[in-house]
Amino acid sequence: MSVPFAGSGPVRVLEVESAAYRRAFDLFLAGSDEKDDIEARLIVLVEGLARRRVFLDVGAGDGRTTARLAPFFERTVAVEPSAAMREGLRRACPGATVVAAPVGRAEPGVRADLVLLSHVLYYLPEEEWPGTLDRVFDWVAPGGTLVVLLQDPDNACMRMVRHFTGARFDLRHATRLLLERQAGRVADRSLETVDNAYRTADPREALEIAEFMINVPVLKDLDPLPSRADLAAYVEKHFAQPDGTYAIGHAHDVVRIRRAPDPGP
Predict the structure, then answer these.
(1) Which region, left, alpha or beta, applies to residue 201 given φ > 0 means left and ψ of -120 to 50 means alpha?
(2) Are strands 252-259 and 140-151 parallel, antiparallel or unpaired?
(3) Residue 21 to residue 140: CA distance in whole angstroms
(4) Given this structure, which CATH class describes domain 4-259?
């Protein structure tokens, strides 16, 4: 299928620090119901916590979610390795303590009543997931809660990612392994899949968001890179709606794990 506006050549590899990435990220947030939906669910969870002393946001990005949750806690700590994202983080949440390090080297120095790990694991090799989840779980205070978000591996967006890059991200398997390793420290847990979608009436924006979505770390190593024409044809085939708009589903797996309180004397 030929799509005239697709242009020629390969898709772009978008560096997190680049203006192109920022534009695509902002465009995605403007057209998706994810932020409002997920943040509303997180607020309900926060309101049910037994204690709200410390909030730790691991991979805080530009701080939009950090800022929504920070007022519920006495103290907020945010881990964010990207300098460009930290600029937005400090503007959005000036009262937060910011740790400028990747999760594998971060030392937040707190045990938190809520630890949020949202959309971070895509950027780590899968063999590092078990150690990363163990490390992050250690930052949860006794009686506190860890929340991990990642796209469901079988949603429309991830099927597109797999089609063009071969990458698959399965939080459920990693969670099962974490629960096995930490069985004695887990009080309870849950897994919920939340439907979300990006919507637009502009085919060029749909293509730009599709390009943003397939920019997982393995993309830069592909030779050749997928072509923009092939991506545009995929968007037209799979995401075009009868009313002329475009919808890209990106359902999320939301894992909640509550750490057991310390045993009494």
Answers:
(1) alpha
(2) antiparallel
(3) 32
(4) alpha beta
The amino acid occupying position 59 is G
Helix (H, G, I), strand (E, B) or coil at 223: coil
What is the rounded CA–CA span in Å between residue 58 and residue 54?
13
Instruction: Write out the two tokens for 97.
Output: 């303590």
| Alpha helices (runs of H) in the chain, residue ranges in sequence order | 19-31, 34-47, 64-69, 83-92, 129-138, 156-165, 171-181, 203-213, 228-239
Residue 186: in which H helix or E strand, if any?
strand 186-194
- Which residues are CB-neighbours of 96 under 8 A, at least 6 positions away? 57, 60, 63, 66, 70, 76, 77, 78, 89, 90
Q: Which tens digits make up the pLDDT trace of 123-177?
A: 999 999 999 999 999 999 999 999 999 999 999 999 999 999 999 999 999 999 9
Q: Where are the domains of the chain?
A: 4-259
